[in-house]
Amino acid sequence: MPEQYRYSGSTSAEIAADVEQAVRTGALAPGHALPTVRALASDLGVSAATVAKAYGELRRRGVVSTAGRAGTRVRHRPAVDSRASRDLAVPDGTLDLASGAPDPRLLPDHAAALARVAATAGPPGGYREAGVLPALRDLARTRLAADGVVVPDAGLTVTSGALDAIERLLSAHLRPGDRVAVEDPGWANLLDLVAALGLEPVPIPVDDDGPTPDGLRRALDRGARAVVVTARAHNPTGAAVGAARAAALRDVLARHPATLLVEDDHAAELSPVPLRPLAGATDAWAFVRSVSKPYGPDLRLAVLAGDEATVARVVGRMRLGAGWVSTLLQRLVVELWTDPAVRAEVARARDEYAARRSALVAALARHGVPASGRTGVNVWVPVRDETRTVAALRDRGIAVAPGSLYRLASAPGVRITVGPLAADDVEPLAAAVAEAVAGTGRAFSA
User: Fold this and answer.
1) Which of 2, 125, 277, 431 could staple 129 via S-S, CB 3.0–4.6 A?
2) CA pair distance 130, 442, nearest whole angstrom
3) Which stretches of 186-325 are DSSP H helices?
4) Which tens digits make up the pLDDT trace of 361-415?
5) Bridge partners of 200?
6) At a CB cut-off of 8 Å and minimum separation 6, what does 358 contact?
7) What pairing do the DSSP bridges indicate for beta strands 398-399 and 95-96?
8) Distance CA 432, CA 367 (A)
9) Are strands 226-230 and 302-306 parallel, antiparallel or unpaired?
10) How confident is the model over 119-158, as pLDDT tens digits?
11) Are 117 and 332 in contact (CB under 8 A)?
């Protein structure tokens, strides 16, 4: 068991290697609390400075995180292949509302599009033909322009998903120790990525309209060299940047033109509200739109638009590594984008997610529990005690995500994914959440 793990090492390098191995093998699971610096130093017979140096190295590599009185813990997604992370699963019979994933039943069928790709693929391509397909580039430009994102002539490429794009952007512009402004609460995967890159996150408070202008101003005044903003379907709160908020954020960014602005529109067509882009608010900017949420998580492709210099850096780095995103995958995305039947399926999914979010937020309100969820596939519920709430719901057969995964300095909460939620689940779920928040309750039955 993790609580019985015996740490070893006499130098900071040996202690760090021992902890990393324990995380990799699953002996220390995500979320596990490491001993205090003084306690471990006493157990190992080394100085506190030696343990502190080991913990610092693990923190810089994104294996652990340190949060004041919460101590040092293994990250939810440590930057090392972890058997415990791979084995994490919701028990059978539990309603899984923790994943943040889209409902597979609302994803378009790829069979017809794959058949068309197979029929028109032609002979295998080579390295010279690699890159962004002209058909995909033209469609992407048109779709972005319709949402107000004007793409420069050489300002578009594709990456293997949104997080891949963000990693390449941050790596190309920043160095370990640099500060990056992130939403708080914000996307857990992004927070883990920032830690793994050795960057220092600077929190920006979030309300229903997205990151607050005052919070952004403070983060930039603190020296943040980059900022990552979620345009719509904010994870975990469902916030979306409106017209007035976009104008206010642009005003703040205009005073810091050298800042790298990264805008994430991962939900895209699934969002019921119009896009209010910040693209071009600084000299270095990037707008990232993934196809995973509307069309399927296995479609590892995102369109990255930006100023020519920023996009050129990403393309250059890709040529030195992965090279390009599969042209077969690009052809599949083109087929999905141009299929009227698929567009109708995505529109139905958008409306269904909106109905589920609205129904759950309304039901929680009737039980006296405030919640937010304007867009996206999640609902955010502020709570006083995350651990107690998550455990109480788990005992009732419901899995939700603890807000600690998404927070830096913001108030506690839990995230509920509406993907698997059926209409008949809503009222009993709201009652169970209310009872869990209050500290009483009974078993949930779907």
Assistant:
1) 125
2) 57
3) 188-196, 213-221, 243-254, 292-295, 308-320
4) 999 999 999 999 999 999 999 999 998 999 999 999 999 999 988 999 999 999 9
5) 179
6) 373
7) parallel
8) 10
9) unpaired
10) 988 777 777 667 899 999 999 999 999 999 999 988 999 9
11) yes
